Amino acid sequence: MRALVISGGGSKGAFAGGVAQYLMEHEKREYDMFLGTSTGSLLVPHLAVNNIPKLHKIFTNVQQQDIFSVSPFVQRKKGDREYVSIDFVNSLWQFIKMKRTFGESKSLKRNIRKNFTLEEYQKIKETKHDVVVTVSNLSMNSVEYKSINDCTYEEFCNWIWISCNYIPFMSLAKVDGYEYADGGLGCVIPIREAILRGATEVDAVVLEAENMGKQRVLGKNPFSLMMNLFGHLLDQVERNDIVIGQLAAKNNNVKLNLYYTPTSLTENSLIFSKRLMEKWWKQGYAYAAEKHSSY
């Protein structure tokens, strides 16, 4: 049983889309299971129905307003460089309204339902073994994996959204009395879960460079420093997930193929730029092609 696993990584998910396109269209890989965390959760349902042109159009055209109903960021451009700074006005209003997050992501929730249809949900249940998204149960301090086979259409769309909620910059969700957030807070890339669910071969796309040799520039204010800190912590979680996944693969005689980004694509994966995401998609396709040509 073959599984495709995609890590979290915000806008860098475009790179994973390019890798998946090469594997599915050129290498003719057919996957029984798809597992994702955060941005990976957005990708896997569309990959499961094998509608890559639709996925490419959606993913490379995402803008800040498609994600945030209340954005904690202001996107700016300086020369060829695009970056974000904190929207202090919106953040202040969140404090005044006694909200617990700097921003809200209800726009993303609407867009998930708009772009992932009931017909596609039903097609997956009929043709694929499983599609799984990762969420963090903050109330119980645990990681949970939500299978499409255990959810209604509405429930599954909700879990996809929850898996992407990178707090404290996006919404905090409540389900059945428990509070949930981005799956990456507990498991950035669920390789081990794919193996536990019966995968005998796993293609895992890691949206980070294998070797981080570049020195990071830390934020100049508390908000941007907080983002750097979260990025550092998630990098450590991701490395642990990979080591655990490699051990699980070895112990269960599972073939594990890892696809890293060749370089660090961005220091802020909450920048959604059409130019950059189209570039990263092409890089992902080219990287996978180069990796397979060297076999």
Highlighted features:
single chain, about 300 residues, alpha/beta, 8-stranded mixed beta sheet, two-stranded antiparallel ribbon, 11 helices
The percent range for strand residues is 15-25%
Report how far apart the termini are.
22 Å
Tell me about the biggest sheet?
8 strands, mixed
Strand/helix succession: EHEHHHEEHHHEEHEEHEHEH
Taking pLDDT < 50 over at least 5 consecutive residues as the criterion, the unreliable ranges are: none
- Rg, nearest Å: 18 Å
Strand segment count: 10
Please tell me about this protein's structure:
This protein has eleven helices and ten strands. It has 295 residues and is an alpha/beta fold. The strands form two sheets. Strands 1, 2, 5, 6, 7, 8, 9 and 10 form an eight-stranded mixed beta sheet that branches. It is globular and about 50 Å long.
Quick structural gist:
With 295 residues, the protein is an alpha/beta fold.
List the helices and strands and how they pair.
Elements: E1 2-6, H1 13-26, E2 33-37, H2 39-48, H3 52-59, H4 64-67, E3 73-78, E4 81-86, H5 88-96, H6 106-115, H7 118-127, E5 130-137, E6 142-147, H8 153-163, E7 173-175, E8 178-182, H9 191-196, E9 201-209, H10 222-251, E10 255-261, H11 274-293
Parallel strand pairs: 1-2, 1-9, 2-5, 9-10
Antiparallel strand pairs: 3-4, 5-6, 5-8, 7-8
Helix pairs in contact: 1-2, 1-3, 1-11, 6-8
